[in-house]
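For reproducibility, we list the full input for the guanosine-5'-triphosphate complex.
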Amino acid sequence: MSFFGKLKDRLFSSSSKLDKGLEEIVEEGAEAQVEDTPETETPEQDAPRPDAPQAPEPAPEEPAAEPEERPEPSAPAAPQPATPDAQPPVAPPVTPGMPAAPVTPPAPPVREETPPRAEPAPEPTPRPAETARAPEPQAEPAQKPGFLGRIFGRGEAAAPRRELDDAMLEQLEELLIQSDMGVETALRVTANIAAGRMGRKLSVPEIKDLLAGEIARIMEPVARPMPIYPKKPQVVLVVGVNGSGKTTTIGKLASQFREAGKSVVIAAGDTFRAAAVEQLQIWGDRAGVPVMTAPQGTDPASLAFDAMTRAQAEGADLLLIDTAGRLQNRQDLMEELSKIVRVIRKKDPDAPHNTLLVLDATTGQNAVSQVEIFQKIADVSGLVMTKLDGTARGGVLVAIADRFGLPIHAIGVGEQIDDLAPFDPEEFARALTGAEGELA
Ligand SMILES: Nc1nc2c(ncn2[C@@H]2O[C@H](COP(=O)(O)OP(=O)(O)OP(=O)(O)O)[C@@H](O)[C@H]2O)c(=O)[nH]1
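The corresponding predicted structure, in tokenized form, follows.
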């Protein structure tokens, strides 16, 4: 099984939730009109056809309403020409399109870059929402006749279809909101799906493909591997609430970097919790990477300074610093993090070169407020979303991408050391929606 096949299998179970919801929505208004393909298989040039009588019968429950009252649909879910500028998000050996790294599998979800700091974090975050909106509505048929041929019925058998009207759009919005996609994003996605399709009859697989296309479009701009600089050591500060998966992610990253030929040092910066330090030591052993610890209660900044000194002395490529995640006392945490930063900057004014925020997908919308908070207390440069395996709440990543535009460097898809995968927007969109066809 290919890497991505495996990933898809393990990637969360949101699709089952969406699946069920979509089936209910379509079946609710579905006509048993199965053989009425003539109307649907040759969609006219995309002009909204609110009044177009679609099928001989039975009449749709509600006449398709004017699309105007929806948030302005800006992008037809027109087939994207595979985002010409989309870079392969990560550098796993099996990722198509990546320059075959000299290093062998599994390469870390990182990318070699030249300039130190300065640019990476605040990358001109084109609001993905904006980017997500395709420039202009274009006529679908002209772009993907094969896809439309399939979507609109040619030779397709008995999939129930429902005419796309306002009521159905509202239900779709609701479903997406329930899938943790957030209100704004859900509205935008459904508006884009509606563009040029009002009055058309859609089946569940078609809606999934459309949804997946919209989601992939939102996620593409943020799918970026962690930049790697020629700085020694490159300092990566790892932040996030307790239990989000920081320790595990540090272990997985350390292992991947090592396999990619980098020398790594880990600093166990959550010095107040003995258990956290022990866990990190276990992960360090697994990854074959030294873990610097300090007696319980030591000032984390002092440990970070020592770790920096050691990493510099040893010429280490990377220093991964774990931190505490006690948001209960935000002020303390903020001071602790700023002190760590102040201290390591004495050794390297550009450090930390990356500040990774680790988020737990199972917390749903809570992850959104964690991004907000950590952006305030730390200069977050990128995200890792953990526990996407087996949760039905992966939709929150779409909301986060749409709202914050922070790069998503990697995703956690299990508890084992190699369960850190590069973030692939299309794969993610398919897994989230259960889409199997060509993405619109
Ligand atoms: N299924 C799954 N479990 C994960 C993943 N990442 C981490 N976990 C589990 O989540 C739990 C918490 O992970 P930790 O790495 O200890 O989290 P932490 O943020 O370091 O937590 P503290 O040590 O309390 O600060 C552990 O049981 C991990 O095995 C993932 O991607 N998938």
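The pocket of guanosine-5'-triphosphate is lined by residues 240, 242-248, 270, 276, 279, 325, 386-387, 389, 412-415, 419 (CB under 6 Å). Confidence is low (pLDDT under 50) at residues 32-107, 114-156. Both points were considered when choosing residues for closer inspection.
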